[in-house]
Amino acid sequence: MVSLKLSKKNRRLIYVGLACYLAFLMITLPASFLTRYILPSIDPTGVVQLQSVHGSIWDGQANNTRIGQFNLGALNWDLSGWGLLLGNINLDVDFKSELANGFGDLSLGMGGSTSASDVEINFPAEMLQPLFSGFPISISGDLRGTITELNYIQFEQLQADGRVVWQGAALRAPQNIELGDFLIDMSPHNQGTKIKITDENQGPIKTELNIKLSGKGKYTLNGWMQARDQSQQHITEALRFIGARADSTGRFWVSYNGSLGKKNVRGQRQVR
C-alpha cells in the first residue's frame, strides 16, 4: 500500500490552486449561464426575457430584451457577485432600441420580485398603448423622466416613485389633437401607486387626473379635463367622447376603473 503524505506547504499550494481554478471558472462563465440557469430559478414566470445573449455572465449583452409586454431592445449589463451570494440578481443596465433608451439599477429576487432604482427613461408614449386596452383612445408623444424607485411582484405589488414628463402629448383617436406637455407624478400607496397627471399650462386642454393603481393591476381613474379655449368645438367633442357632459365651468369629469392590459375595462360617466 502506497501512502502519499503531503507537507503543510504543499497542501496549501493545492488549496490555492483549486481556489484559483474555481475563480477562473466563475470569471469566464458565459452570459448564457445567466439566462439558462440563474434567471429561470429567480424569475420562474418569465417576466424578464433576454434573447441572443453574448459576453460573460458579469459583463454581458442581449440583442433583444423584454420585460412583460414591453420590448426594450438591446441591453448591456454588469452583474454584482455579492448579489448572487444573497440570492438576487443585481444589475447595472442600459438599454436601447430604435424607439426607446434608458439606464438604471435592476434587481431580480427570489419569488419573482423585481425592483429598480434611479432609472432614466426615454420612450414613445405609443409603447404604453397595450395598457389602455378598452379605452376609446390612441396616444402619442415622448415620455422622459426618472423612476426613483420601483418594486414589482406579479399579482401582489406594483409600487413606483418618480416623475415623468409626457412631451408633445397628443390624441390620435377618437380625434387628432395636440395636447402639449403633461407632468406625471408617481408615489407609493399601500402595495400600489398613486399617479397624478397635470398639464404644464400649455396646449389646448387643462387636465387634472388622479389614478390609484393596486398591486394586482386594478386601477381607478378620476379627474377632469377642460378645453382651454372652449370655442374650439373639435376639442370639446373629443372630451365629451372620452368623459361625460361638461359641468357649468366647462370641465369634463371622468371616472374609469379596470385592470391594466385587460379588455374588460369599465368606463363610468360622472356628471358634476
What secondary-structure arrangement, pairings included, does this model have?
Blueprint: H1 8-27, H2 32-42, E1 48-55, E2 59-67, E3 70-79, H3 81-85, E4 89-96, E5 101-108, E6 113-124, E7 138-153, E8 157-173, E9 177-189, E10 192-199, E11 205-213, E12 218-227, H4 233-242, E13 251-259, E14 266-269
Antiparallel strand pairs: 1-2, 2-3, 3-4, 4-5, 5-6, 6-7, 7-8, 8-9, 9-10, 10-11, 11-12, 12-13, 13-14
Sheet of most strands: 14 strands, antiparallel
Average residue pLDDT: 81
- Total number of β-strand segments? 14
Contiguous low-pLDDT stretches (5 residues minimum) are: 21-25, 264-272
Q: Tally the helices: what do you get?
A: 4
| Helix vs. strand class | alpha+beta
Notes on the protein architecture:
The protein has 272 residues and is an alpha+beta fold. It is built from 4 helices and 14 strands. The model is unreliable at 21-25 and 264-272 (pLDDT under 50). The chain has helices spanning 8-27, 32-42, 81-85, 233-242; strands spanning 48-55, 59-67, 70-79, 89-96, 101-108, 113-124, 138-153, 157-173, 177-189, 192-199, 205-213, 218-227, 251-259, 266-269. The protein folds into 2 domains: 30-100, no CATH class; 109-272, no CATH class. Helix content is 17%, strand content 52%. The longest helix has 20 residues, at 8-27. A 14-stranded antiparallel beta sheet has the order 1-2-3-4-5-6-7-8-9-10-11-12-13-14.
